[in-house]
Amino acid sequence: MEEFLYAQINIVGFIILAILLTNQKKSVGITIQQELFNTLIIAAMYILVLDSGMWLIDGKTFSFARELNFLISTAYYFLCGFISFIWLLYSDCKLNNTIRHLRNRLLVYFVPLLIDIVVIAYNLGSGLIFSIDAHNVYHRGEWVIIPVILSFSYLICSFVLSVHKGYSSKIAGDKRQAYLMAFFALPPVIGIMVQSIFSEVSLIWISTVISLLMIFVNIQNQQINTDSLTGLNNRLQFDKYLYFKTRDTDYKDVIALIMIDVDKFKQINDSYGHLAGDKALICVADILKKSCKNKNVFLSRYGGDEFAVVYQTRQLSNVQKLIELLHQNTHTFNRTNSEVFSVSLSIGYAVWERNSSIDRLIAQADHNMYQAKRRKA
To answer: For the whole model, what pTM was predicted?
Structure first.
């Protein structure tokens, strides 16, 4: 009866993944990240079917039962390595938010999968990974640890990359996402470790389903909390962050709110069209990311052509240094970019005072920003 229990668990997992895939397919303009995540879901659905098949036909006798069991087991081992490989690709793409780095490392990432394929192919004549006896019973071979280690290495690599990204990043949103990616890799890792020790327990793939479900929920939360054009946090997330940040009174750091307005943004729209206006906002967001790299900041699109930066720092002088860096990087952008427009920023800031109000902080930063804008007129 044990095999039917595991088959039922796999069916539940399959249904969950089918729901996730259906929702993913509704997305407009599929990105490489979504393609990799969809591939993970589809591969996991296949392996749940194979895993159920292995449990249900093992030890059963019917025509070509042994051959079918061997074929299913071989496909199962191949998909184990493939899923782990795609998991690492997705993690890399998610962490770096670009496929450029992924392309540079793709060949290195492929090496363990290639070794896995060779070892599985060698098993066809040797039975060193697994064998099916005359009674159609599955047996582990002496080399079974090799594909396990290869698959495990991909997940550990994903975990290490995520932790390193979280540790090295100073931007609050990037740090949180990196640590979440590390956490999402843990259930399959634990499942592999347990199932490697206790072969009669099937935990790997239901653990993977749980991780994919958590990733999907995280994606949905990101879509709710992220500005779709610039990729920065939206106003809702800004309000939440500033609220919780100003509630903490234990630290002695300076918390500065920097408000930024794009000068003559309407003129860009009127002269070059709204697509150029959108591109200008994206370019400003990139300038913010570049300027705030390795700083403890929270970046958001406040609304329209306004942006907000919450900067936590030891010294007040660092706030002015950041503003100067923003102007410097804006100047560099105008000098080196190939766009038809140039950008200029008006920037003002205010410092959080204990027992003050958030509305007062925003009003003061906004006032100082418009003072900077008037001085340009």
So the answer is: 0.73
